[in-house]
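// run 5 | inverse folding | seed 20
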């Protein structure tokens, strides 16, 4: 069974513009069609980076906001810290410009990642999840 057939999740964030070291806060509201046995409810910080030959998906931070149990229409508040070492700082001056130029020529970008906060109900089969884009400076 596909996740969307089981119901949906609403994910509300206090803010979508975050800095490294900030705390992301929000609310997860389950809207399930029937009660489901789950291994837990999780919130994740996900980085998606497009490359020449595919896409990398990397869960940077994951937090359990509810233990295993049966869920149907519950609401959970969460907060978790955005790591302070996500985006490498470029050196100032000529060296920084050289690194940026090399990245451009190699068709890569130091900051070409897209960031998302994902709420996930971990169930058998396809998980029920919601993904919201965030911007990290």
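// decoded
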């Amino acid at each position: 069974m596909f996740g969307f057939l089981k119901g949906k999740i609403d994910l509300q964030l206090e803010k979508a513009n975050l800095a490294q070291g900030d705390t992301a806060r929000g609310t997860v509201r389950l809207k399930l069609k029937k009660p489901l046995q789950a291994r837990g409810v999780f919130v994740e910080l996900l980085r998606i980076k497009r490359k020449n030959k595919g896409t990398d998906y990397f869960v940077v931070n994951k937090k359990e906001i509810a233990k295993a149990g049966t869920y149907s229409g519950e609401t959970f508040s969460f907060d978790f810290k955005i790591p302070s070492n996500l985006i490498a700082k470029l050196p100032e001056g000529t060296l920084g410009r050289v690194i940026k130029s090399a990245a451009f020529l190699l068709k890569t970008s130091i900051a070409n990642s897209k960031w998302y906060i994902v709420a996930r109900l971990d169930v058998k089969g396809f998980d029920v999840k919601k993904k919201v884009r965030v911007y990290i400076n």
